[in-house]
Amino acid sequence: MSRKHRLVLGITVGTGCNLRCRHCLVDKNLGSRRITKSEIELLVSEINRCKPRELIFTGGEPVLFTGEINSILSAIHEPYGIYTSIVTNGSFASTTAAAVKTLKSFKALHSVQMSYDKFHAEFVPEACVHNLREACRRLDLSFGLVCAIQAPLDLIFLNKLNLAGVSVTTQKILPIGRAKDNALNYSYPAFEAKVLRKKCPNLGRLVYNCGNGFTTCCGFLASKPGNSRYVHRTIAAHLKSRFYELISSYTFGGLLRLAGLSNDGLSPAHSAPCALCEYIVPGILSSQK
Amino acid sequence: MTNKDKVIAVFLVSVGLFSVCNAMQYVKTLSAAQKTELSFLAANSSQNIGDSEPLRVVKHG
After folding, report:
1. Does the pLDDT of residue B58 top 50, yes or no?
2. Domain extent at residue A256
């Protein structure tokens, strides 16, 4: 399989975090779950078999799980042939030297994505952004920001940060985990019909959630109790599942028709693919028992 | 709709935050100061901003 067709695998190595952001999608009831030795063995075996082109370590805060991440990287056959990223809150970057030391503790690392937005800024000083960026420059690592937003105005803090040349990825907040508890959500003025022409934007990416399994869904459905239709023990089992077949075969408009639903029931919140998927897919799967 | 409004709306659409209709509606709700901030952002950052929908493999928190 060519490199560009190989999947991207996200790995939630643990749910623990040193911050308690209001918008976090991690459910507070998950506590400090940590990937186990047997899960690492399974994960390594799946990685060696499927050869993803990229591994993205996330959490929780992945820096709290450096040992587990290095166990995975040490055991895979060609760790340096796989592009490796972490998504971090960057709170360890109190100085550039501290940031360099932490980043060098990873066995292989190519890219650092720092989550920084008005919510993280309640805990993490702006200096950490600049320190981490400088550490990445010194270590020749790619650096970018991920900004969670409720509305486009949440991005204007970037004007003050003076981060010319840094790539910024926006994330529209979904009501999952603590974001749901705190009634935080990205709001659309009206339903965006273009979503009906799209397929799941996560196709080609899988997530391994510690204590759970492999899934394409890193949103509503995977986080539901009794999620065995959406989360599977192996990559192959997930790719063969009815859930994956549905989301990879149909656009959301096609799924809506398959479910026998009309557009009339769609609200502005259904403009978000995850919200629309949650509205449509469980009904289809239940009717096909 | 002023030229500044149009610049902001185009920016919001280009980075994937809204469709055209929603972008225009949203811009109408902004104050003059907010429009100035967003147009500054549009002028300086649009090439570096991209939307990741729904959730990339990303942590919040």
Report:
1. no
2. 3-287
